[in-house]
Amino acid sequence: MATVRVVGTEPLLPHWTDRMGPESWPHWGRLQATLRANPRWKPHQIESVTSESLRVLRHLRDPLRPAPFQGRGLVVGYVQSGKTANYTAVAARAVDAGYRIVIVLSGIHDSLRTQTQLRLERELVGSQAGIGGTDGPGREWGLLTTATEDFRECDPGVLQSDAAFLVVAKKNVSVLARLDRWLEAAQPFLSDRAVLLIDDEADQASINTRGNRASDPAVCEDEEDDGPPPSRTNELIRSILGRIPKASYVAYTATPFANLLVNPAAADREVGDDLFPRDFVVQLPRPDGYTGTEELFGASAQGRDVLRPVPDDDVRALRPARRRKSAEVVLQAEQGALPGSLREAILAFCVAGGVRSLRPSLDGQPHTMLVHVSQRIEDQERIADAIREQVELWREADRQGQRLEPLFQEAWEAFRASVDAPADDAAVVRASIAVMRRLVILVLNSVTGEDLEYEEKPGRHIVAVGGNRLSRGLTLEGLTVSYFLRTTAMCDTLLQMARWYGYRSGYEDLIRIWTTDGIARWFSELALVEQSMRDSIVALGRAGRRPDQMAIRLRGHSSLLLTARNKSSMAVARQDSWSGEHPQTVLLPLSDPGRLQANRALADGFLASLPAALPCHGGLLLRDVAPEAVCDFLRAYWVHEEVVAFRSDLLADWIAERAAAGELTDWSVFVASPGEAPRQASIGGLRVGLARRSRVSSESIGILTDPRHEGVDLPDGPDAYRRAGGSYDADAMRGARPPTQGLLIVYPLDPEPLGVTSTDAVIALALSLPNTSDSATKWIVNSGVSDG
DNA sequence: AAGCAGAAATCGCGCAGTAG
DNA sequence: CTACTGCGCGATTTCTGCTT
Known about the structure:
Layout: H1 26-37, H2 43-59, E1 69-76, H3 83-97, E2 101-106, H4 110-125, E3 141-143, E4 164-169, H5 173-185, H6 187-190, E5 195-200, H7 232-243, E6 246-253, H8 257-260, E7 267-268, E8 272-273, E9 280-283, E10 290-291, H9 293-297, E11 307-309, H10 312-318, H11 327-333, H12 340-358, E12 367-372, H13 377-399, H14 405-415, H15 425-438, E13 440-444, E14 461-466, H16 468-473, E15 479-484, H17 490-500, E16 502-503, E17 512-515, H18 517-543, H19 557-565, E18 572-573, H20 593-608, E19 614-616, E20 619-625, H21 627-636, H22 648-660, E21 666-672, E22 680-683, E23 686-689, H23 730-736, E24 741-749, E25 762-768, E26 781-782
Parallel strand pairs: 1-6, 1-9, 2-4, 2-5, 3-4, 5-6, 11-17, 12-14, 12-15, 13-14, 15-17, 21-24
Antiparallel strand pairs: 7-8, 10-16, 18-26, 19-20, 20-21, 22-23, 24-25
The protein binds a DNA duplex (20 and 20 nucleotides) through α5 and α16.
């Protein structure tokens, strides 16, 4: 088992960045001025970039120290949350501080590299390009790549110049190999020149998916114990870093799971240490206007049904199970009949387009629907043809003067729940039909090579049918409706989830996702685990600890994500601390009346045994509960069989262990009871209102907890922990929680929106847990890659 | 049932051929 | 001589089918 006990933390030293005075940031000052001149940058955003880039810089090593160093770090952002802005600022500050070469690895696609190059030339380099002239403050820049050309070898002698050098390279084997050779040739000039290597999209291609050659060649002369070499891209990055005496490597990503599960001890004979971020992990703040789990599935979604089910029959119709044997038969049988759910989704897309066109801020902006059913090109063509046929049918009817209004009226009625209607129904329906007339259907894959052309042809309503090219490379602008049927790979689901998030200002209420029950079921749990991981990175930063000294909580991912990603080579040991977390039941045994009734009866007995209840904050608070009572309750509670985020037996064991150590000894139980609830129930002699949560799949709900409830037992109540905007900051509440004090929140849910008839209240649970002393003692390790 | 090998999909590089 | 284009190849990842 990989359990490590930390004996102590290093004392905080004064930071080397303290030597930087306000006058010593010429490059950063210029970049900041550029941002201020751009009206798209609001003052508080510039403020955020300023402080966050300094925060990252402080984690880098001092470039002026003579001793060699190899820094490794990770910066975690949200999708489209200004990661590029952050590393541009970090690069500017790093050059000011004395770094001499900045290498940016910008993903694996050429289009992204060009984009990044242009942006860095504009913002970072400005007018100081070219080696020579010494005008202006600070150093000028030497560019080793251009917008049209990736890195090519040149005379390493240019490094003798006093300029700062910029390389924007793609993570491609031949490009990186050239860079590697060039750095080898440049060896004599590198000894005193510190290099900052920024690895954008670090979860792609940079991860070692193969192995490491044993560190001591003498031990294994024969090929037996010698592992396979690392995957090529990973090997080259490590080789490049190895050639640089003073190197800081910073990985940027929005989905850092694989990066954090790299074995910190992994090393290879030829290219040395793997890329585990052993020095720091930084979580960038969540940008405002960002649409995430809470907005789409939590309390602020206000009963909108974002996830729509796709029946199994439709899945079968769209994905022929057999390829070789009966491909022709399937083609014959499937004459253009569009499954009902896909038809519905396209109508919904037209309606969403209609609503958008009636909102002045969105009219004329690009609008996209994503259809991802199969990665096989022929399937994509077939589905696109079927969609075209259906749309053509509507258009023909339209031309012949048939009334399409009832059809679109129906679609609008199914869509309109808690959508801010911009006009009366008839106008929305008319606008929707107008969108249908202009619908563009594109197939995006390597064969068709079609492009979305947002720049050239603005204001289109695009139905994009595609495979991998859609789920990875391309940015979909104005994405509202998705039709997504990838049933197997969970990490794809997570990547996909990331595309529904991001800036959706002005139309976050129009987002709808058609998907299978299977995907929807895992969806909210994945979202919780992701949030838990971000929380723990923030906690790690606050505690001033290094990544390998503290648990990065990835419970659940081990089974959900990584097994799917690389089954054989990544075995993961689990850690068992819930310190500072807020586990909750989002997957409920809704199809098992026996369990629901047992939980109902259990809650009855439990609450009746507790001391008097005090009404407050939208519920009833029961104080002074013994930890044993909570443990017994949790052990007797029936969870859904497939649950990973709320394992009640493990939680009970952990609480008992903490209680024995003098923590988590003082419990409160809070029963949520919204005053405005349409229905009530009597549980344990308490009259409570039933909270309403909608289903996202047959057995799971979106987000259970109301952030406000996590602070009901704190001295000042939840109202002391509100953000500027008025929302409740549940993280702050958990942070303020004394280590002795735990909170169990019982949510009696209204069975009606859950489609349950076997009981009068579905009992769901959540816990709010303080930071406990064991949070640093156990950690996850990926033990598969090198020390097998 | 689990694990492994091979196929398929996708994308970019590099080379060779061709047109101007 | 230079620029464009088509084609083959390698890298990476996921899915499928076969074997044990």
